[in-house]
Specification:
Elements (H helix, E strand, L loop, with lengths): L5 H14 L11 E7 L18 H9 L1 E7 L4 H10 L3 H4 L5 H5 L7 E2 L14 H7 L3 E6 L17 E3 L16 E3 L4 E3 L13 H15 L5 E6 L11 H10 L9 H23 L6 E7 L28 H4 E7 L8 E3 L3 E2 L3 H9 L19 H5 L9 E6 L9 E6 L2 E6 L5 E5 L15 H18 L5 E2 L5 H7 L1
Parallel strand pairs: 1-8, 1-9, 2-11, 2-12, 4-5, 4-8
Antiparallel strand pairs: 2-10, 3-17, 6-7, 9-10, 13-14, 14-15, 15-16
């Protein structure tokens, strides 16, 4: 990923802004609705090849806009969200794992995970702050997970926050959306939803609140984050939908979880409701609608059942294989995005802030040393012409932590080539993603020169962003870990 230094990054943004928003200098700035799913895999939508799942509204959105086939996130939630909000790589922010893990890193493994920040610093300027300064009403609904109460959405540029807390998941998707969670039985709740009634489903309630905020914006342009918890665990779908997908299930399907399929269907219904309300209000023609996921699908068993399968990609959430970091991304901009198009360019979650600044107007500004440095690039050109290219070749990923399916690892994708470096044993893996998108054929041994070059490129990037690295654990004893197994 090409890194923008402060001078060039700000200069480029000022050039874009001088040209005015793409909807026209004299027209009202476009509204923005950004719908983010949680743990939704790249192959979980019908328009991306899902077999069991049904997503008619998202399929329609893809027909009316642009579907990105090589969009990337970070491998877990909090880093992706921080990157979306700031336009910076999670490694530059030192937010490389989810919030709770940053505060309590594991200490019983061969390596001590890299130091990580649990809260997005107030010194960072968010897309909400930028658009608010440009006259937008700014709303956040749903999952936040990038800070404690002192780093809530209200402190990061959002006028209204409904449901955003430091927690990564609800205890339940059914009313009253509260109760004990996890092995420790921590009590969790979703604030701001009012009294409610029995039988309500969280995905529906968050959509209700989002629609109310669209109406509350009045004549002002608005930026709405509708960041759903679904389909993150707990895997809980509506009973009638679960039974529908249970009857549809076939042994040959890659997706085998009807509960998860029901959650994806409810998520799709939410997107459809938002689209319908924008049309009803006459706002669809001047609203940028973005749909994405914060990381790959979760593939560890939950209550004995694996939630999803990221086939044809390898592995899932947490991993730096494609199944952990490649995600769906669909963008609709009436009058700008050609209908029903696909874009194969490599894009990342950090690209969304400069894209929205480009399309909506605003000023990134500089409020701290290095604060103007962006790692993302505007996708505005791609949204007009999906066959165009960004002026960069490489994208980087950094997860110097443990997860159920990975040890600490860092990676670079440059063109069709991707290299992963594992910190425990200095192992490298090299794949040609054009020929081997499932990452089954490690070419590090047969392509040593390429592996060495990409590894050096990755190490150089670490220095550029001040990436935090894991270190040896002086208290680790392999015999003790074996005795616990």
């Amino acid at each position: 990923m090409k890194v923008w230094r402060s001078g060039w990054g700000i200069f480029s943004l000022l050039l874009w802004l001088a040209a005015g928003p793409v909807f026209g200098a004299e027209s009202r700035p476009p509204n923005v609705v950004f719908i983010l799913a949680d743990d939704l895999g790249w192959a979980d939508l019908a328009c991306y090849g899902a077999d069991l799942h049904e997503t008619p509204n998202l399929d329609r959105l893809a027909r009316e806009g642009m579907r990105f086939t090589r969009a990337y996130s970070m491998s877990v939630c909090s880093p992706t969200r921080a990157s979306i909000l700031t336009g910076k790589h999670a490694a530059r922010l030192h937010m490389t794992t989810w919030r709770e893990a940053a505060g309590t890193p594991t200490r019983d493994k061969p390596l001590l995970p890299a130091l990580a920040e649990p809260d997005l610093p107030h010194s960072e300027k968010t897309i909400a702050e930028i658009l608010k300064a440009a006259g937008y009403r700014t709303f956040h609904v749903g999952k936040w997970h990038v800070g404690d109460a002192g780093h809530s959405p209200e402190t990061m540029g959002f006028d209204i926050n409904i449901g955003g807390t430091h927690w990564g998941a609800p205890s339940t998707y059914f009313h009253p959306f509260s109760g004990p969670s996890g092995s420790a039985g921590e009590f969790r709740y979703v604030p701001g939803l009012g009294v409610g009634k029995p039988g309500e489903y969280l995905t529906d309630r968050l959509t209700d609140e989002a629609i109310k905020l669209i109406d509350a914006a009045g004549d002002r342009p608005f930026f709405l984050n509708l960041w759903h918890h679904s389909p993150h665990t707990p895997i809980e779908g509506k009973k009638d939908q679960v039974e529908k997908f249970r009857k549809k299930l076939k042994p040959v399907m890659h997706h085998q979880n009807p509960e998860y399929a029901a959650m994806v269907f409810s998520l799709d219904e939410s997107v459809g409701r938002v689209m319908a309300h924008l049309e009803k209000r006459g706002l669809a023609g001047r609203t940028i609608l973005i749909f994405a996921s914060d990381n790959g699908g979760y593939t560890n068993p939950f209550r004995g059942v694996v939630p999803t399968d990221n086939w044809p990609l390898r592995s899932g959430k947490g991993s730096l294989y494609e199944g952990g970091i490649r995600v769906p991304l669909i963008v609709r901009m009436p009058g700008v995005t050609p209908k029903g198009t696909e874009c194969d360019e490599v894009v990342t979650c950090a690209d969304l802030l400069p894209t929205l600044v480009d399309l909506c107007g605003g000023d990134v500004g500089r409020q701290a040393p290095g604060a103007g440095t962006l790692d993302g690039m505007s996708l505005a050109g791609l949204l007009r012409n999906p066959k165009s290219h960004l002026p960069r070749t490489a994208a980087y990923f950094h997860y110097p932590h443990y997860y159920f399916n990975t040890t600490p690892v860092s990676a670079v994708r440059d063109g069709d080539w991707k290299l992963l470096e594992y910190f425990e044993d200095d192992r490298v893996e090299l794949y040609n993603l054009r020929d081997d998108p499932g990452e089954q054929n490690n070419l590090a041994g047969s392509q040593p020169d390429r592996a060495v070059a990409l590894r050096g490129q990755l190490h150089g990037w670490w220095k550029t962003v001040d990436a935090q690295l894991p270190r040896k654990n002086p208290d680790y004893r392999a015999d003790q870990e074996k005795s616990r197994r």
